[in-house]
Amino acid sequence: MNKTEKYFIEHQPKSLRENIDLIRTNIFPVFIIALSSLVFSVIYAYNAVNIYKATALMKISKPTGNILEAPLMPTFTDIQFDRFLSNEIEILKSTALRRRVAAALIDSFKTSNNPQDFYLLLDSDNRKSKNSLPKVNKIESLVSELKSVDIEAKRGLDFVEITVLSPSKTEAALIANTYANMYKTMNLELSRNQLTNVRQFLNQQRDDKQKELSQAEESLKSFQEHGGIVSLEQQANALISQLSSLEAKRDAAKIDLSSSDKVLQKYRQELKDRAPYVSAYLDKVSSEEFMKNVQQELTTLEVNKELLSLNSAQLTAEESKTLAEYETKIKRINDLVKQKKTEILKSNVLAATPEELRDLTQKILSEDLRLQSAKISIDVMNSIISKYEQKFNLLPKSSIEFARLQRKREALEKLFVLVEQKLQESLINEQSQPGNVLLLDKAEVPNNPSKPNRMLIIVVGFFLGLLIAFGYVFLKNYFDNTVKTPDDIQKLNANVLSWIPQIEGLLATGSSEFEFIVARKPDSIPAESFRALRTRVQFSRVDTEALKTVLITSSAPSEGKTIICTNLAGSFALSNKKTLILDCDLRKPRIHSFFKTNRYPGLVDYLFDQVPFDDIVRTSEIPDLYYITAGTIPPNPSEILESQKMKDFINSLRDKYDYILLDSPPIIAVTDSEILARVADATALVVSANTTEVELLMRSLEIIRQDNINFIGTILNNFVYRSSYGSYYKYYYYYTRPRKTDRTKLPPKMDA
Fold it and tell me: 101-127: string of b/e by CB count within 10 Å (b at 16+)?
């Protein structure tokens, strides 16, 4: 048999029946493993701690911008919502937010009247000891504990669930609600961050301009009290009003310039850190001559429009027409600027950038235009103011000082009003920015634990135990290369004469009392198996008269060949056949132990002419059954068995006995069995179920076939009928068990 055939035999897939038989054969370990797993599952389920679940539900909307629009405020643009929601979830999982939540929870713990209601907030030692004074966990440890909070967005929706699991139902609800509230507060702070910065800047400017206005009013009052001019002509008053308005607008533009410069620097630095290539591209776009010219023209038109609007009540028809033309040109240039910004955002550089970077880019473009507009507006205002100052200097010298003081006061007053207006707008915008988080459902204290599901644990534990048990059986079988069933032998193209089941009495007591089963328990299943074996040996050859000597051998030691040999011989004897057992195992003989007698004198002693034939032949408890022990163990067993005297001796026995059974050593271990097989009329190979390795059996069959030995088949010993061939066992037991009326009767004595 080549290696390919050997591999195919050992690894061919098993049928469903074979797998079921395998489970039945190993039913005891399967039962023990499954029962152990079930007991462990029950104990675990009983002792498992109740875990409560509390969930807070939030709706996160995409940013929509501000309610009011002001030049000093940045604008929001649309962004991809899925990406935005993912970013918000990362904020929810951030250490910064967990640190805020931990601090708030510690404050809640300190003010709680029932500190025993907490678990996660407690120190690890306090969790184990119920009697010790509750001690809150350190903030860093609590931040780490909060990593277990589950934050999940519902698929396709803008809803986010914050789920907390805790052995304390009160604590679970508290953590979920605190987490939601802290995130809502943090989100509101981030949404109002830029608005707050603008409001703080304007507030500082308002305070500064208020002080300057107070000082200007004091100076004007002091001038009047010291005998100065108390009134001016109407023309001078109009000139002063115009100058003060222009100066107020110029100073307001300076405030806008300062605010825009701070915001723009912040945006540019953020873009430079995140995408330097985009930042460099925007710098190049901002420096283009086209953008500068368009912005300068737009700003000049807006300033001229503002100047005409100063005297809107006294406008002539020509001035009204000019004002309308200004508005038309301003709209056209704004559309042109908007188109240019769209082209920039769709350019190759920005087309593949993430949505939030494009949003930041648009903010920078808008803020840069506002900054350039403020610069140009200041220059234009200064130019116009210088022309008005020329007229102002033509006033009488006695009126100039008074006019200067009054001009300064009015300018500061108008600037203060403008700044105050901007401040109020920014304050309203800041307060009207609600954030984009809405807490829909607060986490409620759960009434029942969410886990463990004790019944599920028990069921899963049981089936897991079965799975482990089956895995153990199949894994054990995979690595077990022993013969187990008659089918395993037949796959090797070897005949199976009979199956000899395990002798239960022998296994239970561990003694040799039940080894001679055909004599001790003739009504047992093993005894019936030996009778079946006897029949199959008798008719294994067509010429039954030529079948006198039968060699019983095995592949390896301890496979039960001596028990098979003696019981088969006893079965022949019980059928009125004069039978002899000849112990030819001259290395480790055992026939004498089987019959509880001395080993010598025996076969070797007779062959060396130490004793006569009658002294070595012994009778057994069964009539017609005789046996010859091995005798003295020689130093050269193979030479003795191969000698002509041994052959002559066996031939002489043919005339005296109907059957002669030879008990020999294993066929692989030594050559003794091969020598005896050439003398014997037939050879039977004993295979022990779950003991004999397939490779050894294959080697034994190979030796037998190569030597052209008269091989009649194999005998499967220690085979478990009940687990592997249950139906066979059932019917076999039914027809072989003794009836109650016959159990007290002795078997009839056979005639010799």
Answer: bbebbbebbeebeeeebbbbbbeeebb
Helix axes 169-191, 95-110, angle to 10 degrees: 130
| Phi-psi category of residue 165: left, alpha or beta, with phi > 0 → left and psi -120 to 50 → alpha | beta
pLDDT at 23: 83
- Enumerate residues 6+ apart whose C-beta is below 8 A from 285: 291, 344, 365
The residue count of the chain comes to 752
Q: Is the peptide bond before 452 cis (omega within 30 degrees of 0)?
A: yes
Give the E-state strand segments of 668-747 in sequence order.
682-688, 711-719
d(Cα 312, Cα 334) in Å, to the nearest integer?
23
Residues 73 and 146 in one domain: yes
Residues 68, 147, single domain; the answer is yes
How far, in Å, CA of 88 to CA of 484, rounded?
64
Predicted confidence at residue 78, as pLDDT, reads 40
Q: Are both 634 and 678 inside the same structural domain?
A: yes
CATH of the domain at 629: 3.40.50.300
- pLDDT interval class at 74 (50, 70, 90): very low
474 and 554 in a single domain? The answer is no
First-to-last alpha carbon distance for the chain, in angstroms, is 47
Of the listed ranges 413-427, 492-506, 568-582, 620-634, the least confidently predicted one is: 413-427
The beta strands (E) that lie in 541-607 are given as 549-554, 579-583
- Same domain, yes or no: 499 and 464: no
DSSP state of 136: B
What span, in angstroms and rounded, lies between the C-alpha atoms of 60 and 437?
5
| Amino acid identity, position 607 | L
Residues 458 and 414 in one domain: no
The sheet carrying 625-628 orders its strands as 496-501, 711-719, 682-688, 549-554, 659-663, 579-583, 625-628, 618-619
Please, which residues bridge with residue 747 across strands?
Answer: none
Domain match, 79 and 120 both: yes
Using alpha carbons, select from 588, 591, 532, 589 the residue that is nearest to residue 563: 591
Q: Give the pLDDT band of residue 700 (cuts 50, 70, 90).
A: very high
- pLDDT tier at 75, thresholds 50, 70, 90: very low
Q: Which residue has the tokens 């920005």?
A: 350
Q: Tell me whether residue 609 is in a domain.
A: yes
Task: Say what percent of the chain tops pLDDT 90.
Answer: 30
Instruction: Using the Cα atoms of residue 487, residue 493, residue 496 and residue 501 in order, give the sign of their dihedral.
Output: negative
Q: How many domains does the chain have?
A: 4
Name which of 253-262, 543-552, 596-605 the model is least confident about: 253-262
Confidence of residue 36 (pLDDT cuts 50, 70, 90): very high
What single-letter DSSP state applies at residue 159? E
Give every CB contact of residue 314 below 8 A, 6+ residues apart in sequence.
Answer: none
Structure tokens given for 501: 């089941």
Evaluate whether residue 744 is within a structural domain: no
Distance CA 275, CA 358 (A): 11
- Amino acid present at 215: Q
Cβ-proximal residues to 135 (8 Å cutoff; 6+ apart), any chain: 122, 123, 125, 126
Band of pLDDT at residue 741, cut at 50, 70 and 90: very low
640-649 CB contacts, 8 Å cutoff, 24+ apart = 640/586, 640/604, 640/607, 641/584, 641/586, 641/672, 641/675, 641/676, 642/675, 643/607, 645/607, 646/607, 646/679, 647/679, 649/606, 649/607
Q: Are residues 462 and 564 in the same domain?
A: no
DSSP symbols for 237-290: HHHHHHHHHHHHHHHHHHHHHHHHHHHHHHHHHHHHHH-HHHHHHHHHHHT-HH
DSSP code at position 22: H
| The pLDDT of residue 107 is above 90 | no
Give the pair of three-digit tokens for residue 339: 């188109």
What is the spatial distance between Cα 37 and Cα 30, in angstroms, rounded to a whole number?
Answer: 11
Domain that holds residue 277: 222-432
